[in-house]
Amino acid sequence: MANERPRALSGIQPTSGSFHLGNYLGAVRQWVALQDSHDAFYIVVDLHAMTMAWDPKELRHNTRLAAAQLLAAGLDPARCTLFVQSHVPQHPRLAWVLECLTGNGEASRMTQFKDKAAKGGTDSASVGLFTYPILMAADVLVYQANQVPVGEDQRQHLELTRRLAERFNGRFGDTFTVPEPYILRETAKIYDLQEPTVKMSKSASSPKGIVNMLDDPKTSMKKIKSAVTDTDTEIRYDREAKPGISNLLTIYATLTDTKIGDLEEQYAGKGYGALKTDLAEVLGDWIAPFRDRTNEYLDDPAALDALLAEGAEKAQSVAAGTLTDAYDKVGLLPAQH
Questions:
Q1: Active site residue 329
Q2: CB–CB of 181/150 below 8 Å?
Q3: Which residues touch 309 (CB under 8 Å, ≥6 apart)?
Q4: Which of 109, 189, 174 is nearest to 144 (CA)?
Q5: Per the residue annotation, which of 202, 222, 225, 314 is the catalytic one?
């Protein structure tokens, strides 16, 4: 019987080492929930991590680290397909076909390429950086994904994916599912604790402004207690006038599944110190088991690799059929086994 649930697909690059609070609350937490409503495929996209300069040992370590953290966060191999991108060779094979259907001007308009290339100089930017949105399209299309959870920064890439699927289908016959964006409901935007007008991120945040989920809980609790607030004393949500307090309220509400309005009532008449102290405790209690679970997976790399191998086998069973169909449609001679 065909799977009646829509298929969702998303991926995370193994470039950042420890996940930070923004990664988790903004994306990974939603992936955990999607396992119940979707046929969910989640990829550690190690090939994408090679578009900029990389260290081989670090890449291998961070790939296991990303997988361990996803499992610690609640991804369940019995309820989703979790695997490493390079373990499924159909990704780059389909990407080549799609590259041959993508215009040079179309690829050069991708804003992420322009932004990253501008930092290091276009002449030194790798061809992989230029073509990686097309590999991303292959990541999605090879699994016939119906929905792709995307943030604003990936919307342009999904539009390219949709165009390539429609272009292929129009030229060679109906082959690919044209994916829709899956807008994550009420996704929490987490901001830098020291610059609460800037989104928390590895590239933009100062060390004191970012909460790394694998740090010692006491370190993270200290960062919460020293978070920037304002000269007022009223605890209320107001992104414009009180970005620091609003950020702390968002973190608190998201970690405890509480409404911000209820927190405002709870802390009415209390000072910022009370809010920070309580939130630090909540965060510490929440991060500690996450770190422990992550370390359990890392302490047994053979078992972790076995889980990822099972995921890759499940992924290949889907990807192989799609690629065979696509190769046949474009006129490639089938290989004899």
A1: no
A2: yes
A3: 87
A4: 174
A5: 202
Q: Which of 114, 199, 225, 314 is catalytic?
A: 199
Structural tokens at position 240 = 């414009």
Asked if 67 and 84 touch (Cβ cutoff 8 Å), the reply is yes
- The two tokens of residue 329 are 């449609």
Whether the model clears a pTM of 0.85, i.e. scores above it, the answer is yes
- Token pair of 43, please? 């990829």
202 is catalytic: yes
Strand order through the sheet with 80-84: 80-84, 39-44, 7-12, 147-149, 180-182
Q: Is 116 annotated as catalytic?
A: yes
Encoded amino acid at 279, one letter? L
Q: Tell whether the torsion through CA atoms of 205, 207, 213 and 217 is positive or negative.
A: negative
Q: How far apart are CA 215 and CA 20, in angstroms?
A: 9
Say if CB 51 and CB 129 are below 8 A apart.
Answer: yes
Distance in angstroms (rounded) separating the CA atoms of residues 273 and 62:
36
Percentage of residues of the chain with pLDDT beyond 70: 93
* CB 235 within 8 Å of CB 267: yes
Q: Kindly report which listed range (149-158, 283-292, 303-312, 326-335) carries the lowest average pLDDT score.
A: 149-158
